[in-house]
Amino acid sequence: MALNKSNPKTRLNDLLTKLRSAGHRITPQRLAIINILIDSAEHLSVEQIYRQVQKDFPTTSLATVYNTLERLKEMGEVLELPFSDGSRYDGLNPHSHPHLRCTVCGAIEDVDIDLELAAEEVAAERGYADVRHRLEFYGVCPRCHRGVSHRSSG
Fold first, then answer.
1. What is the sign of the dihedral through the CA atoms of 87, 88, 92 and 93?
2. CA 145, CA 91: separation in Å to the nearest integer?
3. Which among 69, 91, 113 is the end of a domain?
4. Domains held by the chain: number
5. What is the pLDDT along the chain (154 residues), one digit of tens a residue?
6. Coil, helix or strand for 153?
7. How far, in Å, CA of 112 to CA of 137, rounded?
């Protein structure tokens, strides 16, 4: 499966329709959380989402963010990426796909490599069912690389 290139407005409408049809209310806080997830080019942590929501809804609890993410995860509409320093969330492309992570600043980017065929081949060859994958590349992002180069030369 190639990366989902749908625009955030289409993604928002799809998510709201699915939440409503599953019987979930669309509260202003829940809508804000969803907008943050799908508008961000980054893969945000719960704390980052929480801080952004609190700008407009200061009484929102951390539990509200966790509960919303959990509902979206259960529906297959957000991808949780567990890392040693905490989970990050992808609400724009909630399907298994490779990532590239900076070892300096922790930035995470989607990598457009289609692994679905490989997963299907592995499943067929080994007799497995429901094969999923997780692939991460690690390196120093261009911004951090420039910063490291500038620090080491001066």
1. negative
2. 28
3. 91
4. 2
5. 445 556 778 889 999 999 999 999 999 999 999 999 999 888 999 999 999 999 999 999 999 999 999 999 999 999 999 988 899 999 888 888 999 999 999 999 999 898 989 999 999 999 999 888 889 999 999 999 887 655 554 4
6. helix
7. 12
70 lies in the same domain as 141: no
Is residue 134 domain-shared with residue 58, that is, in the same domain? no
Tell me, yes or no, if the pTM score tops 0.90: no
Q: What share of the chain is helix, strand, coil (3-state, %, to 5)?
A: 45, 10, 40
Q: Beta strands 136-139 and 99-102: pairing type?
A: parallel
Cβ atoms within 10 Å, residue 86: 12
Write down the residue that tokens 């320093």 correspond to: 85
